[in-house]
Specification:
Layout: E1 4-6, H1 10-25, E2 30-32, E3 39-43, H2 47-57, E4 67-68, H3 75-78, E5 79-80, H4 84-93, E6 98-104, E7 118-122, H5 127-136, E8 139-143, H6 155-162, E9 168-171, E10 182-185, E11 192-195, H7 201-208
Parallel strand pairs: 1-9, 2-9, 4-7, 6-10
Antiparallel strand pairs: 2-3, 3-8, 4-8, 5-6, 6-7, 10-11
């Protein structure tokens, strides 16, 4: 039986993550918790490891696994033509249960299966998974169960199905969710839901709706009505006396006296301010995470 590491304690988690990292770097497969269900993963850049992963699940190359990433910055190294609205969804739902399918970078030296030039990416919201990913980089990870069987929500569930095909099991306790991640296709002008999951289509559309800017202190606000202004009482003329000198032009100046200029107040600068049919060629197993 492959070792199972209890990651509920600091020591167990430290030892378990270290052994999992060692196994992944050696081209072996491991089971780890995620924010959805338990996943079984391997080094995404090792074709042999990915092949072992698919074989352990009884899954063919026509169903390539998604890739889990340790940070948002990893996306541009793996995907190309990422639309702005997809970045909005990443900001809203990552880390979290949303998998996005993009066109893969053509320079990538990997073999995930028959991806048709795409890659499905996700950043999980799980400290144990992120600890492993931060050490080994992108991993091909799919649900830790035999194809067609219920997804594993505990390490024990995963071990009962995958057994010795897995080198290391990380036990993070029961997962907080039994739902799989939502998978959407981001290779077109608008997203298309390939598999419904923890993030609903309504949540996706709500995240993409334009948001009204919040008012700032510099913006004008409605003022309360005020009393109309009245003309001030005209001043009484003051009689000129002989003792008061009259103003005379400066004889030393060659410039004629001009009317005083009036300041003109300029206006302030304005404030700145899917279809139900899915493409079977894209990755995403309706029964897998």
């Amino acid at each position: 039986m492959s070792p199972v590491y209890d990651c509920s304690t600091e020591e167990g988690r430290r030892d378990g993550v270290a052994k999992a990292v060692e196994a992944v770097r050696a081209g072996e497969i491991v089971v780890l918790p995620t924010d959805t269900v338990y996943g079984v993963g391997a080094d995404a850049f090792s074709a042999e490891a990915v092949a072992s992963l698919l074989a352990a699940k009884g899954r063919g190359r026509e169903m390539p696994p998604p890739v889990l990433v340790p940070s948002v910055r990893t996306v541009d190294g793996l995907a190309t033509d990422v639309p702005p609205w997809a970045r909005d969804l990443i900001r809203e739902f990552w880390p979290g249960p949303l998998t996005l399918v993009f066109k893969a970078q053509s320079s990538l030296m990997w073999d995930l299966g028959e991806t048709n030039g795409t890659v499905a990416l996700r950043m999980p919201q799980d400290d144990i998974a992120l600890a492993v990913l931060s050490e080994v980089g992108p991993m091909a990870v799919t649900s830790a169960n035999l194809t067609g069987q219920p997804a594993a929500t505990t390490a024990t569930d995963a071990a009962s199905q995958l057994g010795a095909a897995v080198s290391v099991y990380l036990d993070g306790g029961p997962t907080t969710s039994t739902e799989v991640s939502t998978i959407i296709d981001c290779t077109g002008e608008e997203f298309v839901v390939l598999r419904a999951g923890a993030v609903t289509e309504e949540q996706l559309r709500a995240a993409l709706e334009p948001k009204e800017p919040e008012p700032t202190e510099s913006e004008p606000t409605e003022s309360e009505p005020t009393e109309p202004e009245t003309d001030p009482e005209p001043e009484q003329p003051v009689a000129e006396t002989a003792d008061e000198p009259t103003a005379v032009p400066d004889e030393a100046s060659d410039t004629p006296e001009t009317e005083p200029t009036q300041a003109i107040e300029l206006p302030a600068d304005p404030a700145t301010s899917s279809t139900d049919d899915t493409d079977s060629t894209l990755p995403g197993d309706p029964h897998e995470r």
